[in-house]
Amino acid sequence: MSNRRNFIKKAGVLSAVLALNPWKAEEFIPQKPKKIQKPVVLSTWNFGLKANEEAWKILSKGGKALDAVEIGVRLVENDPDERSVGYGGRPDRDGRVTLDACVMDEKANIGSVACLENIKNPVSVARAVMEKTPHVMLVGDGALQFAVSQGFKKENLLTPTSEKEWKQWLKTSEYKPVVNIENHDTIGMIAMDESGNLSGACTTSGMAYKLHGRVGDSPIIGAGLFVDNEIGAATATGHGEEVIRTCGSFLVVELMRQGKSPQQACEEAVRRIYKNFVNQNRNVKDTQIGFIAMNKNGETGAFCLQKGFNYAVYTSEGNVLIDAESLI
Ligand code: SD4
Hints:
The protein is α+β, with helices and mostly antiparallel strands and 328 residues long. The protein is built from 9 helices and 12 strands. An 8-stranded mixed beta sheet has the order 4-3-2-6-5-1-11-12. Residues 84, 183-186, 204, 206-207, 216-218, 237-240 line the site of N-hydroxy-L-asparagine. N-hydroxy-L-asparagine (SD4) binds at residues 84, 183-186, 204, 206-207, 216-218, 237-240.
């Protein structure tokens, strides 16, 4: 009898807990970890392949994830043919190339710059903010001033190709980002090194022909990038406004903390973003969002709103480009 009473009491407590919890119980079932694979590096879009190669040079020698992600994304920042990151990135509507970037390491050290002009490698300035200042974020003129004080060279980032395109754009001056074209160039990279430590970097010139001063998700810790060394890491690409609205990368990591796999966490975050569109009666057609994520077991995942997003994963088995699944 007393056993029965105890059982009823326990069942009552359990159902009360479940009633308080807005999530369905089955969504919490933790994924069985496969063997931990490390090092691992993954990054957004086609250029993730070459960025991963660069990062792998560090990771395969036992180097630190933070060094790997910085070196990896710098390759893309330096390439004038990559049109929405660093040098050669498309300008804002005033013809100014303004860059956003951030880094985060395994100890939750963070550094970020936003609306930085005339410096080719904003990711390295972000790292300098993290390592050499008492702050976590510098913007605009202050970020430039700081970069120059640290020995970064001031240079013109508007290439003749970008300038020509911008002048053409001025004829209509219509701000209409094209899914997977204008907004496909942010590189977000997350890595786990041989010691099992996670770090990430994210860098972009943002949405082409944005208003001067506009800042997207990429330099915002929690939006464009988040790392929790106990759980995992995530980074985002696409329309930054939507990612900021949902604290996207933080959300992905928190969903992994709740037991979701990186894949499930990315899917849920994209669904949240989609829900905002529905609630606000906005058309999702011209918007792209993509997340990539990794957990502490080195398992990876990715998901996007619309077809067309891909990402590169480098493990001991090689460097592969994968088409992410999409909600729509
Ligand atoms: C931004 N998220 O500035 C960036 C743009 C981007 O792929 O990711 N493009 O909103």
